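Lab channel / #folding
Pinned by the channel admin:
"Please post every new chain as: sequence first, then the structure tokens as a reply. Keep commentary short and put observations after the output so the thread stays searchable."

First post following the new format, from NK:
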Amino acid sequence: MVGRDPLRCQRIHCTYTEYSRLCNIGHSHWIARLVCWYFLVNPSFAWQPGASTPIRRLYVEPFTTNARLDRLRVDLVAELRKLSPIALVPEESNADAILGGGGEIWIKGYRSLNPRSGRLPSDGTPVYGGYLSVELKNPRGQTFWSYLVTPSSTSEDIAENLARRIAKHVVEALAVGEPPARAASAPLPATTLHGAGATFPYPVYKKWFTNYRLENPSLEITYDPVGSEAGVRRLLAGDVDFGASDSPEAIHQIAPGKEANYLLFPSVTGAVVPIVNLPGFSGDLAFTPEALAAIYFGKVRKWNDPLLKRTNRGAPLPDLDITVVHRADGSGTTYAWTDFLSKTVPEWKAQVGASLDPQWPAGRAATGNDGVGSLVKELGGSIGYVELIYALQHHLSFGRVRNRNGEFVSASLESIARAADQAAMGDDFRASIVDPPGAGAYPIASFTWLVVPAHIADEGKRTAITGFLKWMLGPGQMQAAALGYLALPADLVAREKTAIATIH
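Reply from TO:
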């Protein structure tokens, strides 16, 4: 099991008692995981006096949002003053840390005063959608904590609601302080690395490659999000320096005789969500695995089918045709989706199975997570599947999915963490975490992997790749949550660092 070991957290003699408190918040609390992750991966800092820099002065930037949240900064400052003794300063130049972020919040519709009527009166309570990416940065602009907040299902004062939730998590992060400054890395010769593959992690990879270059100006990393299968094929052909896949079986499925030539490095954990476009319906649908399989088999063709009505009692499901959307390209996101259906629905396993590029029984095809999201947004009555951040960025509703415990769970950092905590990962870092046991676990979560040659003859590229991998497992993890990806478990990060040393 690669989840955080709470006893191991307790054995570390932290400089601040707050570290221990956070490590024991709860096995699946993602902030506790990030704090424990840092001090487990960097144990030398856990006991050195003064290793972490206390934060005494905080500057809150105006958030980059739509007009609906023009009061967010004022409300957030008020909440922070209630919860924390840290001084809130009016100028960034006087701050030890800067809190900021951005995103979008919108009204999806209005909660019906009489759900069984099918009408959504304008005097009902607003139902909000959207997201805010939140980050704490030091004065050098380096992120040392991040978070993704989504609206509660209903709230009359959305700015105040979000401010309270953000403040709670920020105060916990501020109690830990800023991690020790990293030693400056040796200057790299001018180098360009080319990668290609999965679209699932592309938002966080794009952010990482940009931020890494700010610290290493001589290194440029380009990445083509063409899908897992196409990216791995390019790697096998020698056209790129690294690939990326959301399937741990990508090399095995494409070139089984070459598995020993490549190493897989988990980068983050994310979630695949069912996205829907139901005009006039603003609620959150609940899906069983059986219902999802029946829809993708083409057997359930109407949104008011009894199979859907049984798990969405009282919801005004329309008499509308279902348009199924799936990936056109070989995709790790598809692998996670079909792996889940294969593990939960025997008929799907027997007839379709888990694959990067299955023979789809029904539906229309679109390329990439972005393409699926765009097509679902365009077609009323459609359903598709994408990584969580794509659903949010496309303003699409995503459903709750029944897990092994019988709970209907929505994707979030917390529910993804509960799934990741159950993973059993071998020395080759391959593991599936779909349909995990455990209360509150989201059932279609997945690691995503960078695929790197075990032997890299070019010394400059070898140094560049290993340097980036180490950064990814350190500062990069702190930046992932703002985009809805979960930082890797601490013991897994430590094992990956050992594996990096085997690249030759």
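NK: Residues 6-47 form one domain.
TO: also worth noting, The longest strand covers residues 262-277.
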